[in-house]
Amino acid sequence: MMATALTNPAGSRPVLVITPPAGWIRLGLPELWSYRELIFFLAMREIKVRYKQTAVGVLWAVIQPLFTMLIFSLFFGRLGKMPSDGIPYPLFSLAALIPWTFFSTGLTAASNSLVGNANLITKVYFPRLAIPISTVLSGLVDFAIGLLLLFVFMLSRGFYPGFRLIWFPAFLLLSLLTALGVGLWLSALNVEYRDVRYAVPFLVQFWLFATPIAYSANMLSEPWRTIYSLNPMVGVVEGFRWSVLGRGNPPGPALLASTVTALLVLLSGLFYFRRMEASFADVV
Amino acid sequence: MSTSAIRVDSLGKRYRIGQHRARYKTLRDKIGDVFARRKRAADPPPHNSEQFFWAVKDVSFSIAQGEVVGVVGRNGAGKSTLLKLLSRITAPTEGRIEICGRIGSLLEVGTGFHPELSGRENIFMSGAILGMTNAEIARKFDAIVDFAEVEKFVDTPVKHYSSGMYLRLAFAVAAHLEPEILIVDEVLAVGDAMFQKKCLGKMDEVSKQGRTVLFVSHNMVAVENLCTRGLILDQGRLAFDGSAREAIDLYLTPKEHVQVRDLRAARRAGTGEIRIHRYELISSTDKLIRAGEGFTVRCYFEVHKRVTRPHFSISIFSRSGLILFSVFTSDLGYHIPELSSNGYIDLEIRNPNLLAGTYPLHLGVSDEATNHWYDRVYEGPELEIEPSDVYGTGRQKAASYSFLFYRCSWSLQISSPVESLAQADC
Predict the structure, then answer these.
(1) Residue B424 belongs to a domain
(2) Residue B370 lies in a domain
(3) Is residue A12 one of the residues assigned to a domain?
(4) Is the pLDDT of residue A11 over 70?
(5) Pick from B180, B233, B171: which is nearest to B200 by CA?
(6) Higher pLDDT, A21 or A101
(7) Which of A132, A164, B176, B398 is the most buried (most CB within 10 A)?
């Protein structure tokens, strides 16, 4: 839908013009910015509702990465004897699982966000982008709790975060943008094709093994290593380990590859989402 | 015209038939489509034109600032679609809308409410969704709680609210939205009489403040009391634009006394040996069907395969899904030995005691012995009954508390004065 705010020639009042969708799609980011309070409220709603009527509540934010770490440590660390770049294996995998969990839950929740909020979409107007964005943002609380868990774990193993820690928000941002980019594609597709809901768990599982969480990226030799780094989560996980644990591979050209892919996915996701937006209310 | 708040120019919205009813597309279907299309690439595009329908077509009007306009029309006339277009929920297929001023639309009560959240949290949530800023909501918070009369329960999750409290709170949030243009859909159709009165009062207040209001309702009394101007939509087109009084008169005076609906696109179940493809509601009085007056339901069917001993059924439902009335042909001792060609069947209801309202109908045909359904149309057909003075008091009564009325009378008998009551009053 094209909606243009013009200034009325007569004077002060803004005129909103609504015409059928046509031509080049605009991202509508200034309008989105004016709805930032709504994004905040939607994210708060997600957070508040998430652990209502659960027995252990917010502990789930800890349980998920913790148990995955235990399983990985047992099977890949103990039994599989995976090299872990000189970091104790449990810490090695946990430092990757914290940003990964943020990414995978954000991606999954964003994919279902439009369908889950169908009652809003069909009853009131606001930029639809607010829905997947707020969904991804709502994962930040779980992430913060996971981060605390990681720090506790690190201290108990004698690891102290160094000055590189100031870089970790950059990697958090990269994983947020990746989750959002993919989430935008999938949420818009999910409105029309409900297959997406069933495909997402596969995608996440596949992606988990395409990311150096259970193993080290150093196991790959060079021509493959660069291709591998096109996966934005490679840059996120490696960078996160490097900045928080103070060891592991320093960010290099691989991070650049990850960032470029992430931005491409995000930008294309934004355009695809905006193009499909006009028909959401009719189809959802 | 510099004072117009809304200007609509040859607006149209086209839907694919069954788009929002049919099951969701799956990628498998899409892939299937690609192959199917390739296979018959040489053929002309198949019957595309009949798969679309215009929910709104060629609608043009202009509303001046401060006007309160009622939109009336039968179900499916395009009222809701028009409001959705104006509130930017869905995009028009053609035409143009110009809106001058901040717009607030209220298409349902409780948009954005979450049952797990407290009243307080929901006020902020719903307010934000309806377009209020945080500061604005905080400023009006007390007024909203006051209006809704929920002071004691502000921090209780709304899932524990009674439905009345829930509605009051939801409406209170919306009522304190202060847009220059307010779009309201049927909100008043819910809630008890007290609540409706309160809502109408608030709407009246809003309109007296010189704001522009566009109001869709089946409640003719409300339209007449609130609105200065009325629009009638009929099959997606603007059929009338004039004073509210005239619009209501015109709306209630039928052009024809038969309501006909095609059911080919309706939602149905059954194995399809017989298909009910059309029904008519025929008033016994050459007018719209009014409460207390007889009518006939005529179902046209097509026989695709000969069947023996079918029996037809017609059920009248309440909007909330309660079966008010249901009758099979066999119930009346009417047996059909077999059906092998098309035709229609009439059910004449001579003295219905349904109050005015819209009642969903289920039409069906099944095997008399096994009750196996050949066809069952359960979404689409509706019986509309217009209000009338059923109790002979000079007032109209619609189905708000009850659906039924009976010919009845009250009589009061007093045996002796009760002294204790009289004392208690002092």
Answers:
(1) no
(2) yes
(3) no
(4) no
(5) B171
(6) A101
(7) A132
Tell me: do B150 and B263 sit in the same domain: no
Pairing of strands B323-328, B373-379: unpaired
| Phi, psi angles (nearest 5°) of residue B286 | 60, 20
Whether residue B405 contacts residue B391, with contact meaning beta carbons closer than 8 Å, is answered with: yes
Where residue A14 falls among pLDDT bands split at 50, 70, 90?
Answer: low
Task: Please state, for a pLDDT cut of 70, what percent of chain B lies above it.
Answer: 84
Residue B405 lies in a domain: no
Range of the structural domain that residue A200 is part of: 28-270
**Number of domains chain A is built from:** 1
Say how far residue B339 (Cα) sits from the centre of its chain: 36
Last residue of a domain, one of B193, B217, B252: B252
Q: Give CA–CA dist A79/A160, Å, rounded.
A: 28
Q: With contact defined as beta carbons under 8 Å apart, do A220 and A227 qualify?
A: no
> Helix, strand or coil for residue A231?
coil
Domain count along chain B = 2
- Cα–Cα distance, B329 to B343 (Å, whole number): 15
Same domain, residue pair B168 and B95: yes
Q: In terms of domains, do B246 and B339 share one?
A: no
H or E element that contains B268: strand B267-269
Q: In this predicted structure, which of A58-72, A220-234, A261-275 has the lowest mean pLDDT?
A: A220-234
- Residue B22, pLDDT > 50, answer no
Helix, strand counts (H, E) of chain A: 12, 2
B187 lies in some domain:
yes
If asked whether residues B33 and B55 sit together in one domain, one would say yes
- Asked if residue A13 belongs to a domain, the reply is no
CA distance B225 to B67: 13
The token duo for A30 is 């200034």
Residues of chain A in contact with residue B25, where contact means CB-CB under 8 angstroms, are 192-193
The reply to whether B354 and B247 lie within a common domain is no
Residues 6+ apart with CB under 8 A from B180: B5, B65, B101, B102, B103, B211, B212
Neighbours of A47 (CB within 10 A): 17
Residue B36: what pLDDT? 55
B267 has a pLDDT exceeding 90? no
Cross-strand pairs, B356: B398
Mutation target for A interface from B25, B89, B132: give the one with most A CBs within 10 A. Answer: B89
**Is A169 or A247 the better-scoring residue by pLDDT?**
A169
Least confident of A11-25, A188-202, B13-27: B13-27
Closest Cα of chain B to A117: distance in Å? 9
Cα–Cα distances in angstroms (integers) from residue A258 to residues A96, A185, B28, B258, B322, in the given order: 16, 18, 32, 67, 58
Instruction: Report residue B13: phi and psi, to 5°.
Output: -135, 120
Can you say how many angstroms the Cα of residue B314 is from the centroid of all Cα atoms in its chain? 21
Asked whether B106 and B130 are in contact (CB, 8 A), the reply is: yes
| Cβ-Cβ contacts under 8 Å, B120 against chain A | none
**Which residues does B contribute to its contact with A (CB < 8 Å)?**
2, 15, 19-20, 24-28, 30, 84-85, 87-101, 103, 105, 107-108, 111-112, 114, 116-117, 121, 124-125, 128-131, 133-134
Asked if B242 and B229 count as a contact pair (C-beta separation under 8 A), the reply is yes
Residue A279 lies in a domain: no
User: Which residue segment(s) compose the domain that B216 sits in?
Assistant: 4-39+49-252
